[in-house]
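Forwarding these from the shared drive since the link keeps breaking.
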Amino acid sequence: MRARVAAVLLVAGLGAGCSAAESVPPPPPGPPAVTSVALSAPADLRVATAETRGDGTGPGGAPVVQWSVDWELRWAPVAGAASYAVRYASAEGVPEGAAPDDTTTATAVRVTAAAGTSAPERYATERDAGLLLTSSQLLVSVAALGPDGTEGPATGWVPVGDVPADGRPVTTLPHGH
């Protein structure tokens, strides 16, 4: 029996003079600990629009303009941020504590604010009306997310589609979450 135990120990790599604890390699190191970072709200918010327009022909050969206006909110990077939480709200209510609608590692979010097909003489009026309607109904807010998922303070709610002359949006409501 003693010879059999010795053979098992040798096959298992536990030769004479070694204990089981000495022969077992240490476990691999785990992932590095992620620490929480103090984050600030995204600053230096800027907005702009990018418009696409295509002239075409509608029913009966009438000229039409197919158009789309994208609205872009940009911000300065937040030190320590791994990504950004983007939330949308409607004019019907601002959701308190809602999960982000989107996350991005970019420092910008782009939304199609208005689009349509118009008669050339109505194009500018219908485009402006579409942007006004969106800005009165859709809001966006952004917060920095740390590497461990903690969320910093958010920007106030910014109306989508609204572009002040200086490109600096006016927040409509503070964002409490």
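-- next protein --
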Amino acid sequence: MSELYERITPAQRVILTISLLVGVFMAILDTTIVDVIVPKLMAPLSTDLYGVQWVITAYMTAAATAILLVEWLETKVGLKKVFLAGLFLFTTASFFAGNAQSLAWMITARIFQGFGESLIIVSAEAMLFTAYPPWKRGLAMGIYGLGVSFAPALGPTLGGWITEHIEWRWVFYINVPIGIINFVYALFFLPEHRPFHKIRLNFLSYLFISVSTVSLLIVLSKGQQYGWFSSEFIGKLTFLSVIAFLLFLISEAISKNKLIDPRIFRIKEFVIAFLVYCLLLGFSMYQVFYLIPLYFEHLKGFPTFQTGLHILPLALAVGISSPLAGILSDKLSERVPLYFAVAIYLFSTLYFLPKFNYFTPSWEASIKLIVVGVGLGFFFAPVTNLALKKLGEFTTLGVSLMHYIRFVGGSFGTALATNDLQRSLWENFDGITELQNYHMVSLFIQKLSFLLWITEEKAKALFYKVELLYALSEAFRETFLIAGLWGVLGSLPVLYMFLEDLVKRGKGG
């Protein structure tokens, strides 16, 4: 049986690319576009902020656990049917999410949406990779990276515009016509593709890793709310996650039919890319993705749509540089654009972002984010090409594992950013108050009350808000720096490759 790229014409490849990219873009856009509407869901769903956060948590946990099923489904029905099933689930669930009248209704719809997203992104990436010849797979992953990185960067802008000019329900409804058109398009024009090998699902291993993953993601997303390990609920979930993961390892060790074939971890390039995806993308880049909208909304005080407009240059930089990185991967090597991406990203997160504070002009911050966008855009294509180029029959498994670790690493990164921002805020606030002279502050408040014709209580409240603003400004600076330092840690596997290249060149010379 021939490879997929040998069985399709260039015109069919273009048609396939459009359908897959639209599906991926729609699915991944939903991960950030929904974030901006969370406060607007409380009244319609009759819940509070903590309750509505389950809308995001449910989606994330469903997507992470469904990812590990895709390789098995691929061998049963083929990648085309997996992609179509994902489109059907995601589109149908989007309609029900938009029509949700209660929190339980919304959470159920989001679970099915998350499941559909996993089927879409894994099958699309695996099919796109195999549909291009080996000498053009960098371009294929650059196109895929356009959806993976450009979509979440565009989310706040589009979500803000929809909520301000139409209604929050259209954040979900907009997926329905796009999903239906793409489903029909894919049904008639996508080629059938099924891998050469067959696998049986190890249900016991899948059950254990699913329980471990769901427990871990709930801990990471709700830990701040419950006070981390001072909470009995968080402690029990953490224990359950660890025990379930140990049972998963035991099940995999004694079973001949393994859920995750360990031979994939003998491929050095995949292991390096896997670690980079977890540590650099998850622990660092996801922090930056999370912090930038908060910087403009919470510190600068911009409305959602204006925040999105300030992030738009970053999104455009990602969109332009991602295909370019893919082309360079094919012409040179995936290592060269990856080295460039890491250098630009570390420079921007260690030098530019830690200088962002309340007094930074918004236009200046927006322009500097272009540099961050170039680093992000150059990252996805080469690291994905590096991961998949030697996998062969393990391609879908490799794609699944990369996205699985993206979810888990990204959850860690978001939790770290939330915790660091809150901790730094109150540490700086305490530091500000400790340095103050009580007598001088009292005199200042009295003068402020007299000058503004307000009561001393209001003057105190105003002074408190100014203190809090300065503390938050400093907290963002420190948290951006910490995110950059996590990026240094995540870059160590890339540094290993770079030193390896230097040694090879030295011996060759």
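The chain has a mean pLDDT of 84. The longest helix spans residues 395-434.

- D.
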